[in-house]
Write a structure and sequence with these properties.
CATH architecture of the largest domain: 3-Layer(aba) Sandwich
CATH superfamily of the largest domain: P-loop containing nucleotide triphosphate hydrolases
Number of strands: 22
CATH topology of the largest domain: Rossmann fold
Bound molecules: adenosine-5'-triphosphate, magnesium ion
Length: 498
Amino acid sequence: MGAYLQLKNISKLFYHVKVLDQVSVDFEQGEIHVVIGENGAGKSTLMKIVAGFFKPEEGQIILDGQEVSFQNPLDAIGHHISMIHQELMPIPHLTVAQNIYLGREPVNRLGLLDHAALNQKAKELFEMIGVDINPKALMCSLSTAQVQLVEIAKAVSFQSKILIMDEPTSAISDKEIEKLYDLIFKLKADGVAIVFISHKLDEIFRVADKITVLRDGVLVDTKNACELNKDLLISMMIGRDLTNIYYKVPAQLGEPVLEVCNLSKAGLFHDISFTLHKNEILGVSGLMGAGRTEVMETIFGMIRPDSGEIRIHGQPVEINSPSDAQKHGIALIPEDRKILGLNLKDSTGFNVSICSISNFIKAFMVDNSSENEAIERMIRDLNIKVNSRKTPVVSLSGGNQQKVVIAKWLLTEADILIMDEPTRGIDIGAKTEIYKLITQLVQNGKSVIMVSSELPEIIGMSDRVIVLCEGKLTGELTKDEISQQAIMRHATQQAATH
Ligand SMILES: Nc1ncnc2c1ncn2[C@@H]1O[C@H](COP(=O)(O)OP(=O)(O)OP(=O)(O)O)[C@@H](O)[C@H]1O
Ligand SMILES: [Mg+2]
């Protein structure tokens, strides 16, 4: 008898392009099996086949000794296979309990929805798996990490024997990740087969029993995690060694370009002051919910502050909208790329050049050849995996969509670039390319604010770091002072009690 779930020679085409080619992998119960590979390698597609979202052109799925073929995701759920997607899709205006039991809500004798029973069921489910969330809360009031936990709870409620998690930790902070791990380890102990897709190398070695590497739709290998290390894994993934991940060149800080003075917004942040210099990469660290994104959105004109001042090149400015911010040379690469960043149905090229189209105008006309040249350069530099610049963004893999957003803002003439989690969900090879580009940008006189929850990236790239905690600025570290301990101390505000 073979493994619990066996994939045999799975191939998948999208519009005549082979995105999976004869992939064979086995998954066992009670194991955490990590699937890794560059953006566009085919990880999500492979697992969507297992979860009934796509049908393969070739190959077999053998579940518990029986060949199966799923017509749709419900079919897979019926076989106790659940998938939590890279892009979470909760129904925001329903409660947590309603989201979990959607379509199978308990009813009373009159056939009406029995709210009390519904909430009780969810409460018991949460107690069983040790999750502390109010079943009556609206889904839209939850943090990403909580939504993630609710999705897992939902999978548990279907008695899932196979749980697929597509980059579950890419959008949540270190502290919340621990809760997620606890739950995953618990499910593993209960005999669930867990498939875990991730780009975070540290995390992979923490959770994985087995690791499967995909490259360009082809299986590279499956190994026991204990047989691998980071360097080996990187070279399996990208087909070469990667010696220097951070291309940081320490900056000679120039004059202040952006000064934020006593900025406050009730309920979000209080009395924030900092300065960004020419040629500088200013790291912004802090736990989820520290107010980092909100401060950045305020600088970019998306939130009106209650008080405080923003100065650009020494001059106080009024920024009432993102277009005001753009006029002052500020660009924001948003954290939530789906909502704020892209026109999904439009082509990759359109999305890349949309914010910088004015740069390509010659004699009142858009100069298409220079525009296309710039688009092609971005696609090349960021290694965006796409058939042509005409391909609609919607058909790109998650990570490649993110690269499109980054490309779009890198092309603008902005000299202050605010990047909110710039490498979330991006593979290690492309990350390195992005770091290289950021380094070039600041060497060429631009300034970058980099908000990131990944400490190695903050430490590797920043000239200075500011730390926020619960809406307040709790620390400011110069290059020599930057360390994981120092950042964590400020981020959890232990510094204040010392
Ligand atoms: N719905 C779709 N239509 C057309 N092409 C698609 C579709 N979904 C994925 N692809 C293509 O299939 C390939 C594999 O994509 P997939 O999403 O599986 O990558 P991935 O390994 O999950 O990458 P990432 O790390 O960026 O999430 C990519 O080239 C992508 O453009
Ligand atoms: Mg994916």
